[in-house]
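Your task
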Amino acid sequence: MDYSVLIPFLPRRTEQVLPYAALVEWTGARRLWQGQSLLMEPFQTFSAVAGAGFRVPTGLGVTLMPLRHPFEAAHLVKSLAMATGESVLAGFGPGGKTFQQSLLGAPYRSQLGAVREYLTIVRELLGGGIVEVKGDFYSCHAQMGPVMSPEVQLGLGVLRPGMARLAGEVADAAITWLTPAAYLDGVVRPALREGADSAGRAEPKVTAMVPVALERPGRDVSDFVLSSNSGHMVAPHYIDMLGKAGIDYSTMDPKSAGRLMADAGAFIHGDLDSVVKQLDEYRIAGVDEIVLNLTGVANLYGPKAAMEDLKKILTAVGADRRETRA
């Protein structure tokens, strides 16, 4: 199982990201990840970091479909691979229905239908052929043309079984967020296999974005959970997913809800040995890549504290040496 690093804040300047790119460059961390940002666009951030001398594999987890046509998405992904000279795992997702309405005028009539069309167009464009797709949500009659570049893989943001089955059919990776290891093993991976079998293709790999914080005196785990995921915890699709994972905090106050998230495995917390054991549960569940998410630590104690925790965890799991990178 690979370990990767999520930039634990929304960058405002390229130089803020350089220490995290250096961490990936100099250790066995597999990839540097960023989620969608409405400050500095991740494609530009990673390209600027490469221009500053840190050319590392990158991951987008996930960029939101309503922001751009699939042709522009394919163009940006290919450009990023060419600019960095390293592989890219580009994850896409539809975003919440409110976000869709804000940009498109109405939510997608079918979330899965829109995602299928989007990813199909992006994949065919990246393949270099002529794309002739007239869909219910996206159409494209164009060609990007073949060009040499490092490997590009396409992922889908996956929370629930329907999207997992679709990822099994059309994606190279399922990218998850806040999903406990037991839920991945019992719900997500069976749905991935089902989708892959129906399409006659190999099961996609699983990349899990895992929020984590090391236990220290005076730190309350609920503060970390709420600082990094309070917005997710009130979103309907996350509430539904967490409910399917057996985590129901609907009658709890925020602090209690945060502690439940940690107790139920949606947020990893404890001393270093405990954190390593909890992370290993994801390997047992069949996860191929863990993206260490120290957003809660960065929000409460700053990027330097997040970096220190990252270094300790990477060392503890044996990913502190560059030669371990896959």
